[in-house]
Structure formats: structure tokens, C-alpha cells
User: What shape does this take?
Amino acid sequence: MLQDNQELYSRSILSGQRWSNQVNQSYVMPADVFHAHFDHDNIAMIADVVKKFVEKHSTIDAPRIAKLQRYYLGDNDIHYWNNNKKAMNRADNRIASGFAKFITNMRVGYMLGKPIQFKYDDDDGNDKNDELNDLLKPFNRINDERYHEKVMKTNLSVTGRAYELLYADEAEEDSDGNVATPDVKMRAIDPSTAFVVYDTTIDQHSLFGVRYYVVNYDNQQQYYVDVYTAKKTYHFKSNDTSNSSTGNYTLIGQEQTNFGAVPLTEFINNENKTGDWESKLDEIDAYDLAMSEMANSEEDFANAKLMINGDFDFSDNMKTVFKPDGKPLLDEDGQPVKVPNIDSKDPFIWLKPSFHDNANGTTVVPSSAQYLTKQLNEQGWQTYINQLITDIHKDTNTPNTTDEAFSGQSSGVALMYKLFGEDQERSMQESLYTRGIMRRLRLLGNYWKYNRAISDPSLMNNYKPDYHPNLPRNNADIVQMAAQLNQTGLLSDQTLREFLATVTGISADAEQQRIDDEKEKDPDQDTYGFNQAPLQGTNPADLAEAKAKAQQLAGQQQPQTPEEFIAQMQRKGGNNAK
Assistant: This one.
């Protein structure tokens, strides 16, 4: 996490230009140079190549990513802006807005609030669905795939990029000496500490991936670097304990990689690798400053200086000063010394005009008391704040749910138009996210083929991620619509179950399996519901008679087509009209 690396955290703080103009450039190197160093396990040359890329990433890209992560955490640059207000004994509030987290959470929830469905679609007719599902479902369950997708999407929304690492778990041996195929683990890697290097071809094939991280133990920082290639994983550490990740590296271990390609996958949020709200950092900073200055004005008003004209009038409010022995303190004339009786808790002060004699006579200064404050243009400030809010939501295609126009009384079509921009963003981001998921599936296919769990890794390409936008829904309307569609007879039971899956939370296949299991347990179950829900307090004889009559009617009644059903309902309506 970002907080683990305090040196990187400090370098992300505002100091003039936000970040270098070289950020977000792809990391590339000629493929022949890569093979010359890596194919022959030249550790010194590998370490030298990796060190150059780590130095570039840690000095150019990592500070930008760390800054964006700070904004998501609510640690905006307003906390680090320099001014002299405290030296002038003025209020210095630093209020950071939550726009970054709000926009990201909205985008993640809208796209992945409902789990991704992995549907198998084989156009060639080779049905390997069950075989692959027996591998993919446990993989998703063990790695908590639903939560993993949300973490990946959060990284994408915040930093514009996300990294996913696949690695094999430790192999376990049973009591008979048999070694099972190790499980595959999947982890989201902090984008500020990872990158992928590609070749120079137009297809940009990945050559190797890097993850570098710092371990702070016993007040000493040690940098570690993991390098992932299609064949091996190398583990390095820096030779000295320092704040720099660019020192000389020492190899501490290596192992085989059985994924057939680099197991570190880079996901991108868009072609520019930018976050969802990165382009609106200026407006977010302006909003933070406006809110902070308004808070400062309110605090300065509460602590405003009191200006008094005239003299204090204590003629009727004097008290005698007593010595420690209880006797009055006397002045030179032997009279008791009296001082104004002032109580700081009094909500008032007594004033009188002040008289000043001069050559032209006597000048009278009327008595008054008032606070020294500046006039605030609250209406102009509110207009400015509202415009900033509108621009941030509009330019990031994020609906403003607090807007009066975004009311619960809006029709479904109206809400669709309000979400139109968000849908366009989601559509493009889903396409890019699918690329990363398909690469994950291909890596899994290669690994399972290597371990002889499947025969053909290309079968993984038949899986298609299916996304369902997470929108507020009216379950009653959905159920009513499903009932109406069912009466038409135009849709299959499978289609209706898929339609109702959003209400029940059960997929169509799982629902069919439940129905089959119920029929298997009770083949003679009563579809009219007498056996499934016994009527409380009903006479058993009456219940038996009703069941017999229902079965008799069922035998007499012929199935109707949708046209016959509609015609019958029309005839009933006509008879009622008479």
C-alpha cells in the first residue's frame, strides 16, 4: 500500500508541476536485447536492465500514481499548500473534498456491483463446459474473484492502470505420495510499484513484468524486486538499506513459471492510462480551497477584534481593593482604592462619550462598539461552488445524485438519459477490462495444460465475460412484466428464468437444477400447491375434495395457445359487459 512507502508518499506532495510530462509512456525494449540477456540467465545483465526501468518508474510514474491514490484516500494537496496565515494568527482550515472517492466508487459499483458472469460459448460444438467449469469455478471461489474485480477496477479508476499477478501455490503431497496440481492464486498489485515491459512490435507483446516493494523492519528499509518472465521468476533485493529502490541488486532466488507467458497482466482504464477524475484535479483543488476559505472566514468572524469608540463608564460599577488582612487598601489621601468591577462573563460593557479639548474647542467622540469583519459575498461564493460541482460531475460523466433534477420521481427513460454519459464510459471500459480477463483465462489455460488438467488451452477463449450494470430496480415491476411475458407463450422457461435472475439472485441454470432436484425428491408433487403449502385450519375432508376436483378439472381442461387464451378472455369480458 501507498502508506507503506513514506518516501514515495512525500514525493507525491505538490511542489510546482504536478508531474513530469513523460508520465504514462509505455515501457519498451527491443526483443533481441531482451533475449540476449534473459535467455542465457545472465543475472548481472538482467539486474542492470531491470534497475534502469525501476529507476524510471520510481522517479516519473510512481509519484503521479501516489498522488492520485492520496486523493482517493482524502489526503488532497490542500493539506500541503504553503501560506502565512498561522503566522498572522488567522484561521487556516484545510478541508479536503471526497469527489475522488465518490466518482471512483460510483464507477466501480455501476460496472461491477453485480458479479461478472463467465459464459461458455463454443461455436464449434465441442462441449467442454463442464470440464472447464470444474476448474474455473474453484479458482474464482478460492481467489474471491468478485472482490478481486472490484479492487482491480478501483485501481483503474484511480490511477488509470491496474496489475494482476497469477502465481502457483505450494504443491501439497498426500499420504500416498501423490502430488496434486497446485492451486493458482490471483492478486491485485499496487500500481505504484509495478509495471510491464513490452517489445517494440505493433502488437506490443509483454517481455517481462516487475514488482518492487519496500520492507521496513527494525527501522531499516530494504527494497525487493521480483521479475516475471514467460519462463522464470527472479527475486532480487537491494544491496544496502536506504530510501532508494535504484541501488545494486543481488539475486536471492528464482523458480520456473508455468503460465506460458508473463504472469503479470496490465489492465488500462483508457488509451491514455488516466484515471476517471484525473483531468479534474484543478477543479477539485479549487473546490477544496473555496470550502477552506469559507471556513476560515467563518472562524475569523467568530474571533474578530472588537473596536470600541469612547470611554468605559465604570462610575456606578466600582469595587474596593482589600489587603490580605481584609482591610481596605488606602491611597495617599487616606481614601479606599477603588477599581472598575469587570467580569469577563458579563454580556455587556458600559461606555460613555469621550471628550477631547483642543484649540477649536471640545471634540466629542460618540461611544460605540463593533466587530471588525469583512463583507462576505455568500451568494457569489455559492454560485462558484455550484459551478465547480457541476463541472466535475459533467466532465467525468458521473451523475450528481444530490441534484434536484435527479429525483426519485423521474421516469425510467429520463434516468437513462441522465446515465447516458456514464454508460458510454462503462461500455469503453468494459471492452478494455475484457482484454485483461481474457488474458487471465489464457494464462490459466496454459497452466492447466502444462499440468495436464485440460487438453487444449485454446478452449478458454470460448468464455465470454458478461457484465450487468448495477442499477436501482423495481422488483415488483420486473415480476409483473415476467408474468405478462409468460402468458404470451412466446418465451421459453430458460429465458424467463434469466430475466428473473436479477430479482431472485439465482442464475437460470441454478434455478433449473433446483427444480430438477425437487422433482427428483418428489415426482408426484402437486403443481397446484396443495401439498406444498398446507392450509391452516382447513377441514381435511374439504381439502381432499378440493384436491380431487382440481385434478378432475386438470384432466378435462385442454392446453390453450396464447391466441385461444386471449380470445377466451375477450369472450369473458364481452359477457360481463352484457
